[in-house]
Amino acid sequence: MLRYICKRVVVLFFVLVGVSLLTFGMVHLTPGDPAEILLRTEGIDATPQAVEELREKLGLNHPLPLQYRNWIGKVLRGDLGVSFETGLPVLQELKLRMPATLELTVAGTIVVLLVSLPLGLVSALFKNTFVDHLSRFFALLGASLPSFWLGLIMIYLLAVKYSLLPVMGRGSLAHLVLPSLTLGLGMSATYARLLRASMLEVLGQDFIQAARARGLRENTVLLGHAFKNALLPLVTAFGMSLGHLLGGTVIVETIFAWPGMGHYLVDSIFGRDYAVVQGYVLLMALIFVVINLLVDISYAFIDPRMRLGKKGAEG
C-alpha cells in the first residue's frame, strides 16, 4: 500500500506541473492587457506610458518562460502570487472565500446523498414497477437539466413568484437552500441511476442467494451485504464528483452571487487577474488529485479483496 501511495504522489506531482503549464499558457493567450484593464477600472487614463509602467511593475514585460519560472518558484514556496487588482496575496484572498465555497459544497453533497440513495435503492428493490419507472424518469430529468437553467427556474418559482426563499448572498440557512439544490440535484440523478444498476448487479450474485438460504433477515441481506458491495463503484464516482462539485460552484456562485472562490474566479477572469486565475486552478487541481488518491486508498477498507492483492482476489 505504501509503495502504491508513493507512486500516486509522484504522478500527482507531474499532473500538477502539467496543469500549471496549461493554465499559465491559456491565461496569457487570452485577449486583453491586464495593465490597461486595471487602469481603466481605477479610473486612470490608460496612456501608453502608464500602461507600460504598470506592466513593468506587475512583471508582465518579462518573457513568458521567465514569468513562468518566477511564478512556479513562488508556488513551490507556498506563494501563489499577488492579485493585480487588490494587491493582496492570492492565497489570502482564496482563504477568505474558501469557507463559503466549502459550505456550499457540503450542502450540495448532502442533497446528493439524501436524494440519490433512497431513489436508487427504491428503484432497484421495486424493479420494473411504477415506482421504478417514476424514479428513473426523475433521474433522467435531473441529469438532463443544466445546472444554470435549473437555478434560474428555482429562482423564478421559489424566490420571485412565491417569495419563499432569498435569491442572492450568504447569511442564513435560507440563503443556502437554492444554491445547494441547484448544485446537488443534477448529480443526484446520476448517482441514483448508478446505485440502481449496481444494486441490481449485486442482487443477482450467488453470495446474496447464499445469504438468504442461511435464513438471514431480508433487511440484513439488503443493507449488510448487497448495499455494502454496491457502494464500491459509487465511491469511485463520488470521489470524482467532489472535485466536480467544487468546480461546479463557479456557475452556482455566479448565479446566486454567493461570495465564494468561484464567484471570485469569474470576476478575476473578466479583470484579467492572471495570478488569481492561475492560483485558483492550481489549488483546485491539487484538491482534485488528493481526493482521488484518498478514494483509491479507501478501496482497501471497503473491499477486503483489495487488501489481499491480485493473487488473493483471484483465489
TrEMBL record:
InterPro entries cross-referenced by the UniProt entry: BPD_transp_1_N, MetI-like, MetI-like_sf, Opp2B
Subcellular location as annotated: Cell membrane
A Pfam family matched in the record: BPD_transp_1
Transmembrane portions of the chain: 9-29, 104-126, 138-160, 172-192, 231-259, 279-302
Organism superkingdom: Bacteria
GO cellular component: plasma membrane
Main location: membrane
Matching CDD domains: TM_PBP2
Keyword flag Cell membrane: yes
Positions of the ABC transmembrane type-1 domain: 98-295
Molecular function per GO: nickel cation transmembrane transporter activity
Keyword list, A-Z: Cell membrane, Ion transport, Membrane, Nickel, Nickel transport, Transmembrane, Transmembrane helix, Transport
Membrane topology qualifier: Multi-pass membrane protein
Subunit structure comment from the entry: The complex is composed of two ATP-binding proteins (NikD and NikE), two transmembrane proteins (NikB and NikC) and a solute-binding protein (NikA).
Family: Belongs to the binding-protein-dependent transport system permease family. OppBC subfamily.
Name of the protein described by the UniProt record: Nickel import system permease protein NikB
Organism: Desulfosporosinus youngiae DSM 17734
Source taxonomy: Bacteria, Bacillati, Bacillota, Clostridia, Eubacteriales
